[in-house]
Amino acid sequence: MELLRVSDISLVEREAVVVAPISFDQRAHHKLALAGESGAGKSTLLQIIAGLIQPSTGEIRIQGERVRGPHEALVPGHPGVAYLSQKSDLPHSLRVEQVLRYASKRPAAEAQALYELCRIDHLLARRTDQLSGGEQQRVALARLLLGSPRLLLLDEPYSNLDRVHKRQLQAIIEEVGTRLGITCLLVSHDATDVLPWADEILVLRRGQLVQRGTPQQLYAQPTDEYTAALFGDYNLVRGADRLALGVASASSAADAPLLVRPEQLALAASGPGLPGIVQAVRFMGSYYEIEVQLPESLVRARLRHFASQPGAQVFVELLPQPLY
């Protein structure tokens, strides 16, 4: 069932295009992520969906109901949508219990279950200015969940958290989807936030949608260097190297570059493959990183075992990739 529909949304400010016309939909319980570098328009688009920014064109609908922006409503937004920003925005110096009681639309037992899910039941007596950054985010999330939203918009929710609090909030958000049945739309520039979590990812660049697909598709088959760089290390193999690696027919453009992840390359002491010279061997703990100079490209491969030394000749092949 379709929950969210974004239709021809755009935003122009001072004659500059912040978000180019974009359309997409999101099914209920489908985990969708918006990825892109800083300034790509991700957070702006999320705030438009939340009803906090008025778009220049287009409309947002939640289960068929239009989301009204600040130019159309005294209280913009939609009651079925909750927006969690990078900052918790909690009232200053109030007790956590007070903040949550004012926001609650749930019976006491349900509210208590939410506090336990968000790992904040032990914080109720504290003041908001006595909380750590991670605790503040969890309280802010609980306050939103008390309103029984259908769609939860998460705007870089982990960006200001240390590793421990980040993992804790990630686990909570996973439970929000599975236990409460709330659909989540997440914005992040960090591949580790979206690749293991999302069912589908939309990649934005300078306000434009450049690729859409599953995490597996975007990682293994990026359309350009921008998308490749968002989700990890890559090699750019140029010209005849592409044919030598056996990934294109003779009719392919000889100078078309090929984007290859380091773990997609195999090295052997003899052919077939493209000959190269080992430039460096680095032990990285769980794998070796091997730098190889090919006729037109310098590439890096990742292997669990490697016995050769710098200066040795090797043959580089592209491993078969699954179809996503």
Trace the largest sheet across and list its strands: 6-7-8-3-9-10
> How many distinct domains?
2
How many strands, what sense, and barrel or not for the largest sheet?
Answer: 6 strands, mixed
Q: What is the 3D form? A: globular
Give the integer mean of the pLDDT values: 90
Order of helices and strands: EEEHEEEHHHEHEHEEHHEHEEEEEE
Helix/strand-derived category reads: alpha+beta
| Poorly predicted runs | 240-244, 248-252
Annotated CATH topology of the largest domain? Rossmann fold
In CATH terms, the superfamily of the largest domain is P-loop containing nucleotide triphosphate hydrolases
> What CATH architecture of the largest domain would you give?
3-Layer(aba) Sandwich
Helix content: 10-25%
- N-C termini distance: 23 Å
Nearest-angstrom radius of gyration?
Answer: 24 Å
Number of helices: 9
CATH class of the largest domain: Alpha Beta
Number of strands: 17
Strand content: 25-35%
